[in-house]
Description:
heterodimer; A: 28 helices; 2% strand; disordered N terminus; disordered C terminus; B: alpha/beta; Rossmann fold; six-stranded mixed beta sheet; globular
Amino acid sequence: MTASLTSRANADKASAGKKPPSWGSFFARNAMLVAAIILFLAFVATSPVFGTSGNAANILRQSASVLVLGLAMTIVVLIGGIDLSVGSVVLASATIAGIVLAEGLHPVFAIVAGIGVGAIVGAINAAMIEGLRISPVIVTLGTMIAVRGFSLVWLGRYNSWVEIKGPLFSDLARRTVMGVPLDALLALALAATVWFVLTRTTLGRAWHATGDAPVAARLAGLRVRWLRTGAYVACGALAGAAGVLVAARTGLISPSIGQGLEFFAIAVVALGAGGLPAGRVRVSQTVIGTLILIMIFNYMTIRGVPGTWQTTVTGLLLLGAMVAGRFLQRDAASDVATGEAISDEYARMSPTGAWLTRSALAIATIVLAIVFALINPRFAIWPNVVAIVEQNATLAIVAVGAMIGIVSRSVDISPGSVIALGAVAAALAAQAGVPLPLALLAGILTCLAVYALNGVIVGRLGLDPLIVTLAAWIWARGLAVSLTDATTIGFDMRFVMLMNTPLAFGFTLSVPLIGLAFLAGWIILRRMPLGIRIYAAGGDPRMLRQAGVNESRLRVTILLAMGFFTAAGMLVMLGRLGAAAPTAGFGLELDAIVAVILGGASFRGGTGRLRDTAIGVLFLAILNNGLSGLQMGDAQFFLIKGTIILAALTLRAAAQGFFSRRALA
Amino acid sequence: MTTNSAPTKDAAPPLLGIRGLEKRFPGVVALDDVSLDLAAGEVHGLIGQNGAGKSTLINILSGMLPADAGTVRLDGAPVTIRDPRHALSLGVATVYQELSLLPNLTVAQNLVLGREPSRRGLLDAGEMKARTQEALGRLGLDIAPQTIVSNLSLAERQMIEIAKALASNPKILILDEPTAPLGQRESEQLFTAIRRLRKQGVALLYVSHRFAEVLELCDVATVLRNGRKIVTTSLAGWSEARLTDAMIGAQTERYVASARTTAQTALAADNLRLGHRVRGVSLDVRRGEIVALTGLLGAGQNEIARILGGDLRADGGTLLKDGKPIALRNPSDAVAAKIALLTDERKHEGILPNLPLRENIAVASLGDRRGPAGVVDAARERREVQRVVSDFGVVATSIEVPIRTLSGGNQQKALIARWDLADADVFVLIEPTRGVDVGARADIYRRLDTLARSGKAVIVVSSDVPEVLTLADRILVVRDGVIAAETMPAAVDEERLNLMIQGAAAA
Lengths: 665, 507
């Protein structure tokens, strides 16, 4: 080369981290470790029981299965995904292991079967997430329900009651090595293994790269989709292992096993890492997160706080960890794991494809109705038509809010929990002697308050709405359970009468309320300036900035608007049930999201029409009603419903893939 | 060179008056004492090479960047443009290069976003339609306001972009390479619209690389070079050649890479096709050779490079690597064939921002250091990464710092080192010096030269003419998705190569 290109290398200044590590940055980097130590010291100081060696063993024992689930979640969060099905996998794994034992096979088979079931669920998750590019949140919410149903069906064959007997299992439950319980040791060994894989092997390296920058990793020659698939399978297998530990620990498999464990798994990862940062979670952080969570649970038990508060605390800790993490790591790139980062090569649909896919849903709805009418003579009669509408009034109303959320890329998975919390607030107020209208107002305001809180966190801190509402999904449900001690509270009969009196053709007030919700949705989306901004916020938020719209204020407005639909849904559910049940609205969020997605809106935002959402709601309404008309148990209901929903989503995604044209950059 | 300074009307102040504008970035003076006047009803061309300061000037006027020094006057009154919204309210609207419409919304919705007309909280549909029709009418467009944008052609969308800018009723309209995505006929439509705006008294600042357009459209042009204004002149009597001269400067140094010896063909492509972007491209590159692909923005050179790197899958065509046919379905196929792709989107498609420099360099060759049970041979990795880091002159305090803390130039060298460690023998680089400060450029050129001398085949996509002439052994000019000409650096000068790129003169 010529002399004109002499070295200018020194002009390229090294701007690399020159600052010496300060105490402040040490705390910022190890905030959770510091928090764990402070918590430990505070607990020891305030409770004579907490610091004893017997209690320490307790803490370790309680930590074992949660830690293993946390490890499972660590791997999927690392690659930029999430898995909500791990709690159900624990039930499936424990059930299968128990059955294998009950059939007299060797315990080793039981353990292998338990882990195997988890791996299979992981593979199914991966096939739908990576193969069909459906959002991991939706897929794993679906498998959460389907796998729970599957397990309950199996458990039902053994009268919902399988006792765990076997040498290996009793060792796991009782043995200690130098005072440390065997299952805790096993969990630590698994943690060490996962740590080793993540930090020392080529697989771990490739997972880190995939999570940190998927497009760059792909161009560096990594097979990103296979790597993610492997992560989901590993996650499932680890969740299966956690199920084996749970089986050994409880000794008795019952339908309630594994419920809410997915909350704990997400919480321990977030507690350790200060959020769910793709590419940057570490095993050591998950271990610390697990210890913090279980120490808090243990301390609560010692202090006599009822166990029903555990979920509430988990959700609030999750939220707190994310908010704190946001403040501590302001400068760092912030890819929160929702799977949206995976959207590198999603394609756009052609108009014909969109039309066909949409008509396909309408046709599927009709076919579904005909099938139910044929197998059940009581399906196609007028009272049942009324029932279809009435039973799904809450879903229809909430779906309008969900649609606004999905179109604006503010996906909300909290409505089911918020409805339960709002209803509980209204019922408690009424019980305390507050007049009916004020009690209802208290319920409505509770719903709106949750959404306002979520809105402020999303808008001001720029956290992913999916993760923020995930925290609310957990803590609002937990609070509803805690406040009622897991009991159902009756509500004012005047309101119940009002909501259940037929007005015309057997329909009650629910129908005008549904109409009102859709009208409101139509006005918001089509007739208000807000509507254009909602579509813009989902389509391409950069356009908002160019147009000078304040995005953070817009997000608050959007979430508040969604809150009104959830509040309305709460009123309908409260009236229909006549009582506030803390379990009410379970799975509603999935139904609502699925209705919108089936209707043709993209999970990535920016598209979607209200009338298509209506068809989606109708499909689910007929499915719900038709299945419950067949007089089957909860187990079969969940299994079949979960399967049909996943099948419908799969078909939709496949149709979308078939009809889409790959858009060139 | 004629340097008749800008202000000619001394009575009323010009609509826009810029005096002594200055903007510095670390290591670069992007704008140095630039002055410029813009009058109502004037189409003012802005010309310069990449890095001449055009984008910086536009960004300051549109409120995206603050200036370091100098004044901007509107109708004689000094203003400080705070942000894009403020710029709009002052009557300065910008149409950026990349399309900024929401494809799923209607034309009307796109036009009113952020300034939606409403009555009692509801959209005023009549007003919305009226505003849209007015903006469309000013451009002479016959498009229904209710049309969904994704159903429009590219040219129509570009017109809607301008209509969107017009919806705020600007006095000054900045157009940044508006014809880049357009064909000849569509460009003509656009020119008609621009002339119509000029008649309506809008002042237009028109940035373009296509001199023929500038000569056809503009009354006056300003030429920037290295952040300084060279001339503002009426264009009467100017030719494309003269504009090129002004843009490049008379006494340009000529860099000629001393001859490299080339060996056998490393990669040969035959009749590659991809939609309307790449329409039958054949090329080859030898070991020890640097081939440059150059062309106007959007001519198809980037797509060709991405096909060679396995990122885009060609609709048709064949590839021979060292004489053997290969199929590239994805980037890992390309990596297996020892072809490396470094794109212009370094931040998203190159670096793994939060991972340490070491892992960034090792990622493409993880398999080479895999021990039993997939364990990475850490000591060997450190050793080898250290070696390429010093080979390629990557400056960092340690190989453990996150790569995002390094400068653009060092990141780029680290990426080249990544592929050298992976033993790639064909390097495909898209705009390798984009976002790299001037000082580090020469360093990257030297690294690429070293690569070629060590027997690698290098393909560089660049729209920077001096860069192409500096680096290449052979130059392929891409126009409208085909290779329109092939030449050598020795056979052309900047002016001639520019003309070839413009399509004004065949080789």
